[in-house]
Amino acid sequence: MLMPDTLGQLLWRLVCIYTPFLLVGWFFNHIFLALFLASVSHISWFYYQQRKLLNWLYVDKRLTPPQGSGSWQPVFYGIYQLVKRRLNRERELAHLMKSFRLGAESLPDAIVVFSAHDEIVWCNRLASEFLGFKWPIDSGQHVSNLIRHPVFVHYIQQRQFDNGIEIVSPNRTDLTLECRVMPYGTQFLMIVRDVTQQRKLEKMRKHFISNVSHELRTPLTVLRGYLEMLDDELPDPAIWIRAHQMMSEQAIRMDNLVNQLLVLARIEAAPVISAQEEIDVPKLMDILEHEVRQLASNKELTFCFKVDECLWMRGSIEQMRSAFTNLVHNAVKYCNQPGHIEVSWQCDSQCGRFAVTDSGPGILPKHLLRLTERFYRVDKDRSRDTGGAGLGLSIVKHALQHHRSELSIDSEFGKGSCFSFIIPDDLMLHKDHE
């Protein structure tokens, strides 16, 4: 490491430079002229070294310094060390900024940094998706100019950031966003989170509780009314027979509702199905045909079961039994009389296709997309008469999702409906019929 010259070294360097000129001047009796020439030479040398320094700093711009002479060599080396340390610090800072930005980009939330004057300093990629920001085009833009929701503008202007706010995304109206702002130093950090799914789940939970309460209130009111009637004295036998029948029907209705809720909860909470469990679907169809014929014994309905006896599948027996049963029972409940119901389990391009077709009243197109929602019913009065709670198709939907399938509904109002689904080929089994 080079060190700058000490005072003694500088004096010795001056002596070495000026002594030869003084000796020559003394010899020719022109001492002052010799000193003048020595000074001019010394100044020219300094100017030459200075030019080399300026050329290195502003023209050449190489990291390696030029070769200096005398006392200028430590100067060049010292500047070189300063530049090198500065470049190292800049590299460290650039690496730190890169790591920070990569970390911010990997967050599941949008991040926006804005100044005390509400001007955008930086934002990550999700800010573009959630808020419509364009980086770096929007750098320096006022954040309220890009998010013009009145609640947000008031929130920014009031500077009361103890709690967050919820707004609709200015970029996508289907997103609900939660915004929280935290001051740090002279700037502000805004975190924007997508809470759309959370709000949907909360709404579903409220509707679920409301619907369950409503479904249980009616049978409980009937039971309570008849029980209060029994507090005074036993009613007339004719009235008691009717009361007993009504209480039995309402008790069965509540029992069916609770059982369906338990089945739905069990299916929703079930892990991914095991593809090793073999399901004898033809046998299930035989049992189901016997059940529905008994169920419809007092109805003017005809049935046709078309079952491929060699077509089995892998999956959850309990879930698929629920799916098959709910679809066929729904057809029996809602089919017009006289009517016809056809149940099919056939091979379709190496896949398994199950379909239930009825000659019922059909369904209007406006209802089709909502049929698999919990407690949704096309005709509430008719569903109440048939004992339906609006959970059957929701059970079918979740059971099929576990088997990578989806319920398809084709219906023409006034002519009938077809409910079907296709089981993927990797879940299918073909066995010889004995």
From TrEMBL:
| EC number(s) stated in the UniProt entry for this protein | 2.7.13.3
Q: Which reaction does it catalyse?
A: ATP + protein L-histidine = ADP + protein N-phospho-L-histidine
Q: What does this protein do?
A: Member of the two-component regulatory system PhoR/PhoB involved in the phosphate regulon genes expression. PhoR may function as a membrane-associated protein kinase that phosphorylates PhoB in response to environmental signals.
Limits of the Histidine kinase domain: 211-427
ATP-binding in keyword set: yes
- Return the protein name: Phosphate regulon sensor protein PhoR
Q: Where in the cell is it found?
A: Cell membrane
The cross-references to InterPro entries, in alphabetical order and at most eight, read: BphY/WalK/GraS-like (IPR050351), HATPase_C_sf (IPR036890), HATPase_dom (IPR003594), His_kinase_dom (IPR005467), HisK_dim/P_dom (IPR003661), HisK_dim/P_sf (IPR036097), PAS (IPR000014), PAS-like_dom_sf (IPR035965)
